[in-house]
Design a protein that fits this description.
The chain contains eight helices and 52 strands. It is mainly β. The protein has a 50-stranded mixed sheet that branches. The chain has a two-stranded antiparallel sheet with strand order 50-51.
Length: 805
């Protein structure tokens, strides 16, 4: 072998050896000299890139990025696949990112890789990487077993949100004249796990008309996307979200149009006992938005607000934006419960003017009707907001000419309110400002009833409102009801109302408040109510007092009435047992009774249970046992138990004239009162055995009419004269009703209190002026018939009286 051949072999071998050494040392040289220069501008304190493979078709390695002592990015393995021809065309066939971990931080408003600079935010004029011009084209990108961790700036590791990520993307590029690459389309799928499970698909393409982007995403568990956050930790979320979005852009900067559709299924967002949810399990909440940067058309259906009752909401309309003004117009439908409150629907317009940190929102509706039960005039509402670093302060003002309950024509006229509010809530350093609610007039038909005013203040504790209200009657019976309390956002309501001692006269009530046939009632009335309403039930108690009262119906008068009733378990209209009513005097026609006392309780709004009662009458007393009165009963039946009733006083009240004397009667009087009037059913009164007395009857002519069965004889004359001054051993009274009359049968056994100018002739009593006279014993039955209408001026129909109670 000649020397030239030897040198050539030596040269080829040296070049081959150098190539091998260069190939082996190339990763080290890249790590040592090339990659540090390429990553020098990255904003990290530690930047480590290690190449494990470098071949004509593959580059693989690892990446570590740190900021101070915090790991930002950890990529245990990346792999680039290419060919020499693809590199020549500035293309990479595929990029694999395996087991990448990305740590992000958030301060609640912004998500960032590294903490924001503490000083200047000025830009150096570099616009960053363009979304349309790429130095290299990557045809396929795949992420395998990736992890994204979002750390809260002020929270610990337990508050971090972890997102497991797998996905792939296919990209298509066009080559420009200068060799750069322009992205024409992308098709990507992403699946996540961990704190938030998500499946998403992205389709995007670019052409001369602009960019078109389609996104479809499914989140099966919103509780992962919206976890309980904040110190209160009081927000719970349930449900799934299906989202579709179409965007049309111009140069990736200008929005040409968009369409968004969101379906929330099995959805519930709960806080403080109040939930936002869907109306029914089979109908998901649907949100649709279409428009551009200047105008948005929206629709919202199947949404509900669940508090004590479910409130269904739906709305659609248009929102336009111009400079600092946002305007909206559309319709709102609200349904509480068709059986309780009919569906409410209204059109609205609204504007928002924003000047710096201030917002002015104005909403106006046309006349509204809620089913066939309620209506209102146009409603205007203004909201003013002022936002700064310390919080939000604002005010809501509203008014309407009238609110009307149509079935009874109950109208509130001149309704206006203003309510200032602030967030954070008021405190000792920032006391609340007072708002007002006023109603110029409450009327029933054409009759003015009352005026209403209230002051409102925002509570400093839980979200809610405190109020102090006054309702003042507008008729001659000037009555004022004062109320105070608080209403919380999660629906607990506390209320206390008082009616101070106020003179009352039913004859001064306006006709719409005066039921037909009601007696005249006068006296002093006083009342107090304490109520509390939470999410489950209303609990209340009330006390009503009426004293110095008088009830007048025709010739029937009840005077000196004092009664106090306690209702411990409202809204059940059941009073406490043992309520007491006293009456100073009862008079009706010729009947005159003294003091009365009744123990009673109300069972419900339609019934009254008299536990026992006692009435002073004719120097004695009358008692009655338990008795149930109901609004729908057509007959009242009871028994009066009489004790030591004055004999002659009783006869006088029953129409036996010019009677005086002594003695008392006992017994019972069964009575009933119905459509046919008052009925005495075999009442029986008797004197105490061995306890007789003297009785004098001055109107013997009336007595003679009651002794029609006795023959006109000396015996009749003797009996009539004896009754003028009669010493009786015993007596009985029987009381029965015949037609519309009281049949009073009096039985007397005794003799004249003094001898009478009569004597005996053949065993018969004859008139005689000779001798001392006689005191012959006699037994008399005397019948009196008295029209009941003359005794009791009560009105005949008991049922009509009960219906008007």
């Amino acid at each position: 072998m000649n020397k030239r051949s030897t040198n050539l072999i030596w040269l080829i071998g040296s070049l081959a050896l150098a190539a091998v050494c260069l190939y082996l040392l190339l990763p080290l040289l890249c790590e040592k000299y090339v990659l540090p220069q390429l990553t020098r501008s990255l904003p990290f304190s530690i930047r480590t890139i290690t190449l494990s493979t470098l071949s004509p078709t593959t580059i693989s390695g690892t990446v570590e990025l740190h900021q101070q002592d915090r790991e930002v990015l950890s990529l245990p393995r990346f792999e680039l696949n290419y060919t020499l021809s693809s590199l020549k065309n500035r293309e990479i066939d595929s990029l694999l990112l395996e087991s990448v971990t990305l740590n992000l931080e958030t301060d609640g408003d912004t998500i960032y890789l590294t903490p924001p600079p503490a000083v200047s935010h000025q830009r150096d004029g570099h616009s960053g990487i363009s979304l349309s011009a790429w130095p290299l084209a990557v045809r396929t990108v795949k992420i395998k077993n990736g992890v994204i961790i979002l750390h809260s700036k002020d929270g610990g590791a337990e508050n971090a949100i972890t997102l497991l990520l797998n996905g792939s993307a296919a990209l298509d590029f066009a080559t420009m004249a200068d060799g750069s690459k322009v992205l024409r389309s992308i098709s990507a799928t992403v699946q996540t796990g961990g704190n938030t499970a998500l499946t998403a698909r992205l389709e995007a393409n670019s052409n001369e008309g602009g960019e078109n982007i389609d996104i479809a995403a499914t989140i099966p568990n919103l509780a992962q996307l919206l976890p309980r956050r904040g110190a209160a930790g009081n927000v719970d979320t349930e449900g799934s979200l299906d989202l579709t979005l179409n965007l049309r852009l111009h140069n990736f900067r200008q929005l040409v149009s968009f369409q968004l559709s969101a379906l929330l299924d099995n959805f519930r967002l709960s806080s403080h006992g109040t939930s936002i949810t869907q109306q029914s399990p089979e109908n998901p909440v649907t949100i649709r938005l279409t428009g551009d940067s200047k105008k948005i058309d929206y629709s919202l259906t199947n949404l509900a607000l669940a508090t004590v009752r479910q409130i269904d909401l739906a709305s659609d309309g248009t929102i336009t934006v111009q400079d600092q003004t946002t305007a909206a117009a559309g319709s709102v439908t609200v349904t509480v419960n068709e059986e309780v409150v009919p569906t409410f629907a209204a059109d609205y317009t609204a504007t928002i003017d924003r000047k710096g940190s201030s917002i002015d929102l104005a909403v106006t509706t046309g006349p509204m009707t809620v089913g066939n039960r309620f209506s209102s005039g146009p409603v205007t509402v203004h909201t003013f907001l002022d936002m700064n670093q310390t919080g939000v302060r604002g005010r809501i003002e509203g008014s309407t000419p009238a609110l009307t309950e149509l079935q009874r024509d109950l109208r509130a006229s001149g309704v206006a309110f203003t309510f200032p509010f602030q967030f954070p809530p008021p405190s000792a350093k920032s006391p609340p400002r007072a708002g007002t609610v006023t109603v110029d007039n409450l009327s029933l038909g054409n009759t003015s009833l009352a005026t209403f005013s209230s002051t409102l203040t925002q509570l400093s504790g839980e979200p809610g409102i405190g109020f102090q209200s006054t309702l003042t009657s507008d008729f001659d019976n000037r009555m004022t009801v004062n109320c105070n309390g608080e209403a919380l956002l999660n629906f607990p309501l506390k209320l206390s109302c008082t009616l101070p001692a106020t003179p009352f006269d039913s004859s001064l009530l306006p006709p719409p408040l005066l039921p037909p046939g009601i007696p005249r009632i006068t006296g002093t009335i006083e009342a107090a109510v304490d109520a509390e309403h939470d999410t489950s039930a209303l609990r209340a108690e009330a006390t009503v007092s009426f004293y110095g009262g008088t009830v007048i119906k025709g010739d029937t008068v009840l005077s000196g009435i004092d009664v106090k009733v306690s209702f411990p378990d409202l809204p059940k209209f059941r009073s406490a047992p043992g309520q007491i009513c006293t009456i100073g005097n009862i008079s009706s026609g010729t009947i005159d009774m003294g003091g009365a006392i009744f123990s009673f309780r109300t069972e419900d709004a339609n019934s009254l249970f008299i536990e026992k009662g006692q009435v002073s009458w004719c120097g004695g007393k009358v008692e009655l046992g338990s008795l149930l009165l109901t609004r729908d009963m057509d007959r009242l039946s009871t028994t009066l138990y009489c004790d030591r009733l004055g004999f002659t006083d009783l006869l006088s009240q029953f129409g036996v004239e010019e009677t005086e004397g002594e003695g008392a009667l006992n017994g019972k009087i069964p009575i009933s009162w119905g459509k046919e009037g008052l009925v005495f059913d075999d009442g029986f009164l008797f004197s105490t055995p061995g306890d007789g007395g003297i009785v004098k009857f001055g109107n013997t002519r009336q007595l003679q009419q009651g002794m029609a069965g006795m023959n006109q004889s000396a015996y009749l004359d003797y009996s009539l004269m004896a009754l003028e001054n009669f010493a009786y051993n015993w007596t009985r009274l029987k009381l029965n009703t015949i037609d519309d009359n009281l049949l009073l049968t009096m039985e007397l056994d005794g003799k004249p209190a003094a001898p009478l100018p009569f004597g005996y002739n053949k065993g018969r009593i004859v008139a005689s002026s000779r001798g001392p006279g006689i005191q012959h014993p006699i037994r008399l039955d005397v019948n009196f018939t008295v029209p009941l209408r003359d005794l009791f001026r009560y009105g005949k129909n008991f049922q009509s009286l009960m219906e008007n109670m």
